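Need a sequence for this fold. Nothing fancy.
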């Protein structure tokens, strides 16, 4: 993660799942990655099964009608209740996203606005139909998926508007864990804990493979 903010006030952080950009097209309605390209080879003993997406710098797509309800449940902010709902994630990714977020949602349960911000952050990264506008794939490896050659995404950078990033962090920083009374942000900010946590460190920890 870079700590230097670009002039446009976009807040970058890198998800670590030669840096060569493989996201060539950055425009509305285009994805940077999609689907699943196997287990993450750089994560050991994950809390939940960690899989990496495949490079997919192509137009966003519609989900089969049977899968729309999953989108509505997991990422309601992206569901438009019409045939024009397009996404960059598959049914499998939606299910994995739901499982991955469940533990964090349990910590943040006392603050609905924080939960919404947290879910929105991950849904925008994984499923937004405009994913390529704020995601840049920077490192991949060749893999074989069902007999077909693919490029698995090992690393990508996300860019957020400063207002959006700070708003997401601020909605969660004072939430306390029901069972202990401690600040929920502490385990979500790694070695910095609650005292030294800030927007950049919080986002950076979300993309660190060491957090499982």
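Here you go.
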């Amino acid at each position: 993660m870079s700590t230097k903010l670009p002039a446009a006030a976009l807040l970058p952080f890198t998800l670590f799942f030669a840096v060569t950009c493989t996201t060539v097209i950055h425009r509305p309605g285009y994805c940077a990655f999609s689907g699943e390209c196997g287990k993450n080879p750089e994560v050991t003993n994950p809390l939940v099964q960690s899989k990496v997406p495949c490079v997919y710098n192509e137009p966003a797509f519609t989900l089969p009608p049977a899968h729309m309800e999953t989108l509505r449940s997991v990422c309601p902010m992206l569901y438009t209740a019409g045939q024009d709902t397009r996404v960059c994630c598959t049914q499998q990714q939606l299910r994995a996203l739901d499982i991955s977020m469940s533990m964090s949602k349990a910590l943040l349960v006392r603050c609905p606005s924080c939960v919404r911000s947290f879910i929105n952050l991950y849904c925008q990264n994984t499923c937004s139909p405009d994913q390529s506008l704020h995601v840049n794939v920077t490192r991949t490896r060749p893999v074989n998926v069902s007999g077909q050659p693919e490029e698995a995404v090992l690393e990508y950078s996300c860019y957020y508007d400063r207002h959006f990033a700070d708003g997401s962090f601020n909605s969660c920083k004072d939430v306390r864990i029901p069972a202990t009374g401690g600040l929920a942000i502490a385990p979500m900010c790694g070695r910095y804990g609650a005292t030294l946590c800030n927007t950049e460190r919080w986002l950076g920890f979300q993309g660190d493979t060491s957090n499982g």
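For context: Residues 1-11, 13-20 have pLDDT under 50 and may be disordered.
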